Amino acid sequence: QAHLVESGGGLVQVGGSLRLSCAASIPISDFISMSWHRQVAGKEREMVAKIFDSGATMYGATVLGRFTISRDNINDAVDLQMDNLKPDDTAVYYCSAVRRSPLDTYWGRGTQVTVSS
After folding, report:
1. 4-14 pLDDT, tens digit each
2. Mind listing the pLDDT tens digit for each residue in 37-57?
3. Please, which residues have CB within 8 angstroms of residue 76's CB and are 6 or more apart in sequence?
4. What element of type H or E holds 111?
5. What is the CA radius of gyration of the chain?
6. Measuring CA to CA, how many Å separate 27 from each of 45, 48, 67, 106?
7. Tell me, what's the pLDDT at 28?
8. Contact (CB, 8 A) for 1 and 13
9. Dihedral through CA 5, CA 84, CA 90, CA 60, nearest 10?
10. How many CA atoms lie within 13 A of 107 on its CB side?
């Protein structure tokens, strides 16, 4: 069993920046991919950014060019740098990871990000 714990959420003004971090309880090299998702109450959860064990990345269309996902192999974490934040970025942000063996998917409990105008 692996655990993921998000941190770094909070309140920020429009145009500001936040850096989220997701700490894993096992080496992140055990994961095929790690990703960030977000959800607003009453709406479906959407993928924000994903990074594969190869280092390849992918981003949701609404955050491309503003958010950057990266792996911290020393601290076994994945970070999400969020710049030029907009009110529509307000959501609960969740970390997720797909483990290679045994094949399984893990989710963190989420961290709230609020962008005020």
Report:
1. 999 999 999 99
2. 999 999 999 999 999 999 999
3. 23, 24, 26, 27, 28
4. strand 111-116
5. 14
6. 26, 22, 24, 14
7. 96
8. no
9. -70
10. 10
* Cα–Cα dist 19/44, whole Å: 23
Determine the residue type at 87: P
Averaged pLDDT, 25-38: 97
CA–CA gap between residue 41 and residue 33 (Å, rounded) = 26
Q: How high does pLDDT run on average in the chain?
A: 97
| Distance (Å, whole) CA 67 – CA 89 | 11
Note the residue count of the chain: 117
51, 78 Cβ separation under 8 angstroms: yes
- In one letter, which amino acid is 61? A
**Sign, CA torsion 15/51/76/103:** positive
**Sheet hosting strand 67-72, strand order edge to edge:** 4-7, 18-24, 77-82, 67-72
Q: How far apart are CA 50 and CA 13, in angstroms?
A: 25
